[in-house]
Amino acid sequence: MKAAVLKTFGSDVVIEDIAEPALGTGEIIVDVAASRVLPYSNEVFSGERQYLLDLPVVPGPGAIARVRSVGPDATHLKPGDWVYCDPTVRSRDNVLAPDITLQGLSARGDGGMKLQKYFRDGAWAERMRLPTENAVPIGPIAPHEAASWCAMGTCLVPYGGWVAANLKPGEGVLVSGATGNFGSAAVTVALAMGAAFVVAPGRNEAMLADLVRRFGKRILPVKLTGVEADDNKRMLSAAPGPVDCVMDIMPPSVTTATVRAALMTVRQNGRVVLMGGVGMLGGAGLELPYPWIMRNCISIHGVWMYPREAIPRMIGLVRAGLLDLAQFAVTEFPLARANEAVAHAAANGGPFRMTVLKPA
Questions:
Q1: Residues of the chain with pLDDT under 50
Q2: Which CATH architecture best describes the domain 155-302?
Q3: Which of 116, 141, 243, 324 could make an SS bond with 101 (beta carbons 3.0 to 4.6 A apart)?
Q4: Could you tell me the sign of the dihedral formed by the alpha carbons of 262, 277, 180, 194, in that order?
Protein backbone atom coordinates (compact mmCIF):
# COMPACT_ATOMS: atom_id res chain seq x y z
CA MET A 1 0.00 0.00 0.00
CA LYS A 2 1.05 3.64 -0.47
CA ALA A 3 2.16 5.68 2.54
CA ALA A 4 4.06 8.85 3.44
CA VAL A 5 7.15 7.89 5.45
CA LEU A 6 9.38 10.16 7.55
CA LYS A 7 12.80 8.51 7.51
CA THR A 8 15.02 11.15 9.12
CA PHE A 9 14.41 14.42 10.93
CA GLY A 10 15.07 17.41 8.72
CA SER A 11 13.89 15.70 5.54
CA ASP A 12 10.65 15.56 3.56
CA VAL A 13 8.36 12.57 3.83
CA VAL A 14 8.76 9.99 1.08
CA ILE A 15 5.78 8.46 -0.72
CA GLU A 16 6.44 4.77 -1.16
CA ASP A 17 4.97 1.28 -0.94
CA ILE A 18 5.06 -0.33 2.50
CA ALA A 19 3.76 -3.62 3.90
CA GLU A 20 0.05 -3.96 4.65
CA PRO A 21 -0.75 -3.78 8.39
CA ALA A 22 -1.38 -7.17 10.00
CA LEU A 23 -4.48 -7.55 12.18
CA GLY A 24 -4.18 -8.83 15.74
CA THR A 25 -6.56 -9.41 18.65
CA GLY A 26 -7.79 -6.13 20.13
CA GLU A 27 -7.00 -4.31 16.91
CA ILE A 28 -8.75 -2.95 13.85
CA ILE A 29 -7.65 -2.03 10.35
CA VAL A 30 -9.25 0.91 8.58
CA ASP A 31 -9.18 2.49 5.13
CA VAL A 32 -8.13 6.08 5.76
CA ALA A 33 -10.38 8.69 4.14
CA ALA A 34 -8.93 11.89 5.62
CA SER A 35 -6.35 12.99 8.18
CA ARG A 36 -5.43 16.42 9.58
CA VAL A 37 -2.08 18.00 8.79
CA LEU A 38 -1.17 19.89 11.96
CA PRO A 39 0.07 23.48 11.44
CA TYR A 40 3.30 22.59 13.25
CA SER A 41 3.96 19.31 11.41
CA ASN A 42 6.98 20.92 9.75
CA GLU A 43 8.44 21.67 13.20
CA VAL A 44 7.99 18.03 14.23
CA PHE A 45 9.54 16.66 11.03
CA SER A 46 12.50 19.06 11.23
CA GLY A 47 13.24 17.94 14.79
CA GLU A 48 12.70 21.47 16.13
CA ARG A 49 10.02 20.32 18.56
CA GLN A 50 12.17 17.39 19.74
CA TYR A 51 9.18 15.05 19.94
CA LEU A 52 9.88 11.46 20.92
CA LEU A 53 9.37 9.67 17.63
CA ASP A 54 11.02 6.42 16.58
CA LEU A 55 11.94 6.65 12.89
CA PRO A 56 11.13 5.65 10.23
CA VAL A 57 7.44 6.29 10.80
CA VAL A 58 4.24 6.99 8.91
CA PRO A 59 3.02 10.32 10.39
CA GLY A 60 -0.57 11.39 10.83
CA PRO A 61 -2.28 11.74 14.24
CA GLY A 62 -5.90 10.67 13.89
CA ALA A 63 -8.22 10.19 10.94
CA ILE A 64 -11.70 9.71 9.62
CA ALA A 65 -11.84 6.24 8.13
CA ARG A 66 -13.96 3.23 7.23
CA VAL A 67 -13.55 -0.10 8.98
CA ARG A 68 -11.82 -2.68 6.78
CA SER A 69 -11.43 -5.59 9.19
CA VAL A 70 -11.86 -6.23 12.92
CA GLY A 71 -10.31 -8.61 15.43
CA PRO A 72 -12.15 -11.54 17.04
CA ASP A 73 -13.00 -9.56 20.18
CA ALA A 74 -14.90 -6.75 18.40
CA THR A 75 -18.66 -7.12 18.97
CA HIS A 76 -20.12 -3.93 17.46
CA LEU A 77 -17.84 -2.55 14.76
CA LYS A 78 -18.16 -4.06 11.30
CA PRO A 79 -16.57 -3.48 7.90
CA GLY A 80 -17.84 -0.34 6.22
CA ASP A 81 -18.55 1.60 9.44
CA TRP A 82 -17.34 5.21 9.50
CA VAL A 83 -15.12 5.88 12.52
CA TYR A 84 -13.06 8.59 14.15
CA CYS A 85 -9.56 7.19 14.73
CA ASP A 86 -8.33 8.56 18.05
CA PRO A 87 -4.52 8.97 18.00
CA THR A 88 -4.24 8.83 21.81
CA VAL A 89 -3.11 5.25 22.41
CA ARG A 90 -2.97 4.16 26.05
CA SER A 91 -1.28 1.09 27.50
CA ARG A 92 -3.77 -1.49 28.77
CA ASP A 93 -1.83 -2.84 31.74
CA ASN A 94 -1.98 0.19 34.07
CA VAL A 95 -5.46 1.62 34.44
CA LEU A 96 -4.54 4.38 36.92
CA ALA A 97 -1.50 5.73 35.10
CA PRO A 98 -1.30 4.35 31.56
CA ASP A 99 1.61 5.08 29.28
CA ILE A 100 0.58 7.15 26.27
CA THR A 101 1.68 7.62 22.71
CA LEU A 102 0.11 9.80 20.04
CA GLN A 103 0.08 7.46 17.08
CA GLY A 104 2.00 8.96 14.20
CA LEU A 105 3.17 12.02 16.17
CA SER A 106 4.97 11.56 19.51
CA ALA A 107 5.37 9.53 22.68
CA ARG A 108 5.42 10.46 26.35
CA GLY A 109 8.32 8.97 28.28
CA ASP A 110 9.98 5.55 28.02
CA GLY A 111 6.69 3.66 28.37
CA GLY A 112 5.15 5.73 25.61
CA MET A 113 8.13 4.98 23.37
CA LYS A 114 7.71 1.26 24.02
CA LEU A 115 4.05 1.56 23.06
CA GLN A 116 4.96 3.58 19.97
CA LYS A 117 7.25 0.85 18.67
CA TYR A 118 4.14 -1.26 18.18
CA PHE A 119 1.40 1.29 17.38
CA ARG A 120 3.84 3.45 15.49
CA ASP A 121 2.42 4.24 12.06
CA GLY A 122 -0.21 6.93 11.73
CA ALA A 123 -2.86 7.84 9.20
CA TRP A 124 -0.86 9.15 6.23
CA ALA A 125 -1.32 5.84 4.46
CA GLU A 126 -4.04 4.04 2.56
CA ARG A 127 -4.67 1.80 5.57
CA MET A 128 -3.87 1.93 9.29
CA ARG A 129 -3.92 -0.44 12.25
CA LEU A 130 -5.07 0.86 15.65
CA PRO A 131 -6.47 -0.43 18.95
CA THR A 132 -10.14 -1.39 18.67
CA GLU A 133 -11.15 1.07 21.39
CA ASN A 134 -9.56 3.92 19.41
CA ALA A 135 -12.01 3.50 16.52
CA VAL A 136 -15.17 5.36 17.55
CA PRO A 137 -18.27 5.13 15.30
CA ILE A 138 -19.51 8.47 13.95
CA GLY A 139 -22.50 7.13 12.02
CA PRO A 140 -23.22 7.36 8.30
CA ILE A 141 -21.58 10.21 6.36
CA ALA A 142 -21.03 10.94 2.70
CA PRO A 143 -17.41 10.35 1.59
CA HIS A 144 -16.91 14.04 0.80
CA GLU A 145 -17.78 14.91 4.42
CA ALA A 146 -14.78 13.02 5.83
CA ALA A 147 -12.45 16.04 5.58
CA SER A 148 -14.78 18.28 7.61
CA TRP A 149 -15.11 15.62 10.31
CA CYS A 150 -11.33 15.88 10.83
CA ALA A 151 -12.09 19.07 12.82
CA MET A 152 -13.04 16.68 15.62
CA GLY A 153 -9.32 16.33 16.30
CA THR A 154 -8.96 20.07 16.93
CA CYS A 155 -12.14 20.45 18.97
CA LEU A 156 -11.59 17.38 21.17
CA VAL A 157 -8.50 18.88 22.82
CA PRO A 158 -10.26 21.88 24.46
CA TYR A 159 -13.36 19.75 25.00
CA GLY A 160 -11.22 17.56 27.25
CA GLY A 161 -10.41 20.67 29.31
CA TRP A 162 -14.05 21.73 29.65
CA VAL A 163 -15.03 18.18 30.64
CA ALA A 164 -12.31 18.13 33.33
CA ALA A 165 -13.58 21.44 34.68
CA ASN A 166 -17.18 20.16 34.64
CA LEU A 167 -18.43 23.09 32.57
CA LYS A 168 -22.19 23.46 32.97
CA PRO A 169 -24.74 25.14 30.68
CA GLY A 170 -25.31 28.75 31.69
CA GLU A 171 -21.84 29.31 33.14
CA GLY A 172 -19.54 32.13 32.05
CA VAL A 173 -16.04 31.32 30.81
CA LEU A 174 -12.85 33.02 29.65
CA VAL A 175 -10.52 31.51 27.05
CA SER A 176 -6.91 32.67 27.32
CA GLY A 177 -5.63 32.23 23.79
CA ALA A 178 -9.01 32.67 22.12
CA THR A 179 -7.57 33.88 18.81
CA GLY A 180 -5.34 30.83 18.28
CA ASN A 181 -6.02 27.55 16.52
CA PHE A 182 -6.96 25.52 19.61
CA GLY A 183 -8.20 28.62 21.47
CA SER A 184 -10.81 29.45 18.84
CA ALA A 185 -11.88 25.80 19.00
CA ALA A 186 -12.19 26.18 22.79
CA VAL A 187 -14.55 29.12 22.22
CA THR A 188 -16.60 27.12 19.72
CA VAL A 189 -16.89 24.10 22.01
CA ALA A 190 -17.78 26.16 25.10
CA LEU A 191 -20.67 27.75 23.23
CA ALA A 192 -21.81 24.32 21.96
CA MET A 193 -21.84 23.10 25.58
CA GLY A 194 -24.10 25.97 26.60
CA ALA A 195 -21.77 28.62 28.03
CA ALA A 196 -23.70 31.82 28.76
CA PHE A 197 -20.80 33.96 27.54
CA VAL A 198 -17.16 33.66 26.52
CA VAL A 199 -14.69 36.42 27.34
CA ALA A 200 -12.21 36.31 24.47
CA PRO A 201 -8.96 38.23 25.10
CA GLY A 202 -6.35 38.67 22.41
CA ARG A 203 -4.18 41.08 20.44
CA ASN A 204 -5.46 40.13 16.99
CA GLU A 205 -8.36 42.54 16.59
CA ALA A 206 -9.38 41.08 13.23
CA MET A 207 -9.71 37.62 14.78
CA LEU A 208 -11.63 38.99 17.77
CA ALA A 209 -14.05 40.65 15.35
CA ASP A 210 -14.36 37.38 13.43
CA LEU A 211 -15.34 35.52 16.61
CA VAL A 212 -18.09 38.07 17.23
CA ARG A 213 -19.24 37.77 13.60
CA ARG A 214 -19.42 33.99 13.86
CA PHE A 215 -21.04 33.63 17.27
CA GLY A 216 -22.73 36.93 18.13
CA LYS A 217 -23.30 38.62 21.47
CA ARG A 218 -22.16 35.70 23.61
CA ILE A 219 -18.58 36.59 22.59
CA LEU A 220 -17.06 39.41 24.63
CA PRO A 221 -13.77 40.47 23.00
CA VAL A 222 -10.97 42.13 24.96
CA LYS A 223 -7.97 43.76 23.28
CA LEU A 224 -4.87 42.97 25.35
CA THR A 225 -2.33 45.69 26.12
CA GLY A 226 0.49 43.56 27.53
CA VAL A 227 0.25 45.27 30.95
CA GLU A 228 -0.79 42.57 33.41
CA ALA A 229 -2.83 44.65 35.86
CA ASP A 230 -4.57 46.60 33.09
CA ASP A 231 -5.43 43.47 31.11
CA ASN A 232 -6.85 41.78 34.20
CA LYS A 233 -9.16 44.75 34.81
CA ARG A 234 -10.23 44.90 31.16
CA MET A 235 -11.18 41.23 31.16
CA LEU A 236 -13.10 41.52 34.42
CA SER A 237 -14.94 44.58 33.12
CA ALA A 238 -15.95 42.79 29.92
CA ALA A 239 -17.65 39.92 31.74
CA PRO A 240 -21.39 40.53 32.37
CA GLY A 241 -21.26 38.20 35.37
CA PRO A 242 -18.86 36.02 37.34
CA VAL A 243 -16.31 34.04 35.34
CA ASP A 244 -16.94 30.48 36.49
CA CYS A 245 -14.11 28.86 34.56
CA VAL A 246 -10.93 30.02 32.77
CA MET A 247 -9.08 27.92 30.23
CA ASP A 248 -5.50 28.75 29.27
CA ILE A 249 -4.50 27.29 25.92
CA MET A 250 -1.78 29.79 25.01
CA PRO A 251 1.31 28.66 23.02
CA PRO A 252 4.78 28.32 24.64
CA SER A 253 5.91 31.71 23.34
CA VAL A 254 3.47 33.68 25.53
CA THR A 255 4.65 35.34 28.76
CA THR A 256 3.53 34.08 32.15
CA ALA A 257 2.19 37.56 32.96
CA THR A 258 -0.30 37.32 30.09
CA VAL A 259 -1.51 33.95 31.32
CA ARG A 260 -1.71 35.03 34.97
CA ALA A 261 -3.78 38.13 34.11
CA ALA A 262 -6.39 35.86 32.51
CA LEU A 263 -6.41 33.12 35.15
CA MET A 264 -6.97 35.56 38.00
CA THR A 265 -10.29 36.72 36.56
CA VAL A 266 -11.97 33.54 37.82
CA ARG A 267 -14.53 33.94 40.61
CA GLN A 268 -14.30 32.61 44.14
CA ASN A 269 -14.79 28.81 44.07
CA GLY A 270 -14.06 28.93 40.33
CA ARG A 271 -12.07 26.53 38.17
CA VAL A 272 -8.93 27.03 36.11
CA VAL A 273 -7.88 24.69 33.29
CA LEU A 274 -4.23 24.64 32.14
CA MET A 275 -3.77 23.23 28.63
CA GLY A 276 -1.21 25.64 27.16
CA GLY A 277 2.53 25.65 26.68
CA VAL A 278 3.88 28.07 29.31
CA GLY A 279 7.42 27.06 30.31
CA MET A 280 7.89 24.45 27.58
CA LEU A 281 10.61 26.57 25.96
CA GLY A 282 12.34 27.29 29.27
CA GLY A 283 12.21 30.44 31.35
CA ALA A 284 10.07 31.24 34.36
CA GLY A 285 7.21 29.01 35.36
CA LEU A 286 3.69 30.19 36.08
CA GLU A 287 3.52 31.80 39.52
CA LEU A 288 0.07 32.15 41.09
CA PRO A 289 -0.40 33.66 44.59
CA TYR A 290 -0.83 30.93 47.18
CA PRO A 291 -3.18 33.09 49.36
CA TRP A 292 -5.39 33.84 46.34
CA ILE A 293 -5.71 30.14 45.48
CA MET A 294 -6.34 29.09 49.08
CA ARG A 295 -8.68 31.85 50.28
CA ASN A 296 -10.77 31.80 47.12
CA CYS A 297 -10.95 28.00 46.94
CA ILE A 298 -9.68 27.93 43.36
CA SER A 299 -9.57 24.52 41.65
CA ILE A 300 -6.75 24.14 39.14
CA HIS A 301 -6.94 21.36 36.55
CA GLY A 302 -3.95 20.40 34.46
CA VAL A 303 -5.33 18.63 31.39
CA TRP A 304 -3.54 16.87 28.54
CA MET A 305 -5.74 15.69 25.68
CA TYR A 306 -9.14 14.21 26.67
CA PRO A 307 -10.74 11.10 28.16
CA ARG A 308 -11.91 8.43 25.72
CA GLU A 309 -15.57 8.92 26.66
CA ALA A 310 -15.33 12.53 25.42
CA ILE A 311 -15.27 11.31 21.81
CA PRO A 312 -18.82 9.89 21.55
CA ARG A 313 -20.12 12.90 23.50
CA MET A 314 -18.58 15.28 20.99
CA ILE A 315 -19.97 13.23 18.13
CA GLY A 316 -23.34 13.75 19.82
CA LEU A 317 -22.79 17.54 19.85
CA VAL A 318 -22.05 17.44 16.12
CA ARG A 319 -25.00 15.20 15.30
CA ALA A 320 -27.33 17.44 17.33
CA GLY A 321 -26.21 20.50 15.37
CA LEU A 322 -24.75 22.17 18.46
CA LEU A 323 -21.18 22.01 17.12
CA ASP A 324 -20.93 23.08 13.49
CA LEU A 325 -17.88 21.55 11.80
CA ALA A 326 -18.64 23.67 8.74
CA GLN A 327 -17.06 26.58 10.64
CA PHE A 328 -13.71 25.12 9.56
CA ALA A 329 -12.47 25.93 6.05
CA VAL A 330 -10.75 22.86 4.60
CA THR A 331 -7.98 22.59 2.02
CA GLU A 332 -7.50 19.04 0.75
CA PHE A 333 -4.40 17.34 -0.66
CA PRO A 334 -3.91 13.82 -2.03
CA LEU A 335 -1.32 11.55 -0.41
CA ALA A 336 1.13 12.09 -3.28
CA ARG A 337 1.32 15.80 -2.35
CA ALA A 338 1.95 15.26 1.37
CA ASN A 339 4.95 17.61 1.48
CA GLU A 340 2.92 20.37 -0.16
CA ALA A 341 0.24 19.79 2.47
CA VAL A 342 2.79 20.20 5.28
CA ALA A 343 4.00 23.50 3.82
CA HIS A 344 0.43 24.71 3.28
CA ALA A 345 -0.55 23.84 6.85
CA ALA A 346 2.43 25.81 8.23
CA ALA A 347 1.50 28.88 6.19
CA ASN A 348 -2.25 28.63 6.80
CA GLY A 349 -2.58 27.43 10.38
CA GLY A 350 -4.91 30.08 11.72
CA PRO A 351 -8.25 29.67 13.47
CA PHE A 352 -10.99 27.82 11.62
CA ARG A 353 -8.54 26.68 8.92
CA MET A 354 -7.65 23.08 8.37
CA THR A 355 -5.34 21.24 5.98
CA VAL A 356 -6.35 17.66 5.28
CA LEU A 357 -4.58 14.78 3.57
CA LYS A 358 -6.77 12.27 1.71
CA PRO A 359 -4.87 8.98 1.26
CA ALA A 360 -7.74 7.00 -0.29
A1: none
A2: 3-Layer(aba) Sandwich (3.40)
A3: 116
A4: negative
- For 85-201, where are the alpha helices, taking DSSP H only? 109-116, 146-149, 152-164, 181-192
pTM of the model: 0.94
Distance in angstroms (rounded) separating the CA atoms of residues 236 and 252: 24
pLDDT in tens, 170-203: 999 999 999 999 999 999 999 999 999 999 999 9
Residue 283 is predicted with a pLDDT of 76
Handedness of CA 234, 239, 244, 248 (dihedral sign): negative
Whole-angstrom CA distances from 137 to 17, 131, 206, 307, 337 are: 29, 14, 37, 16, 28
CA atoms of 23 and 240, how far apart (whole Å)? 55
DSSP at 52 = B
pLDDT of residue 360: 81
Q: Rounded to whole angstroms, how far apart are CA atoms 155 and 217?
A: 21
Task: Assess if CATH 3.40.50.720 describes domain 2-151+328-358.
Answer: no
pLDDT of residue 141: 98
The domain segmentation of the chain, as residue ranges, is 2-151+328-358, 155-302
Q: What's the pLDDT score for residue 233?
A: 98
Cis peptide bond prior to 56, omega within 30° of 0: yes
Cα-based angle 152, 39, 277 (whole degrees, multiple of 5): 85
